[in-house]
Design goal:
The chain is mainly beta and 239 residues long. The protein contains one helix and 18 strands. It folds into two domains: 190 residues, no CATH class; 35 residues. A hairpin with a 2-residue loop joins β15 and β16.
Amino acid sequence: MNATALVVGHLGNGTFTQSGGTANVNGTLTVASQPGSVGTYNLQGGLLKATTITPGSGTAAFNFTGGTLSVGTYNGDLTQTGGTLSPGNSPGITHITGDWNMGASSFASINYQAPGITAGVDFDQIIVDGIADLNGTFNLFSLDESVPTVGFNFLTASSINNNATFNLPESWSAFTINLVPEDEGFALQLDIGSPVPEPATIVSMLSGLLMLTFRRVFRLGEGRFDRASMRRTGKKGKK
């Protein structure tokens, strides 16, 4: 199914259950749009892609129990008891304006590609304006099989309760996931430890160290340095 907009529960009661296939909404999916209406979207399987998902003025329910959800902005609290949250057009960004309650049987997919600098371009990111209560599993993938050279934040929230499990690519086995403070909350960060200098940087560092050592030897003592013989000589005649 492809649509520019989708409404479930416009004036009366409406229920849509997705158990497979792909629903692609290139716009807003509204649940219970009018006052007095009742709308329910049951995502049980398949793939739901939407630019925005929002509750209307009625009584709305979005039941995320299976399948894969790829959404740009989810307005309100998102409760996930199953399935996989996969941000945006991966790499992409999912913005949840309320809380995110991630159940123990739930998954989140975080994709990465070099150079790993910009969220939504090089790696997936989930932004939660409220509380992120994490009890499920995060699977991190490298789309181009590259290994990060800088750390990155793949989730930010005003508060994080972290009881999640994290699966990393085999080549990332030395990295860790840390909970770090941010200006307006907290973040889950892939920490790569101390970056390994590039070969050209190592050569430059060694050259500088050798020059510094040479200058220190040259200035040592009260003599002068005889470059031809590579021997130190005194001020009062030659040795």
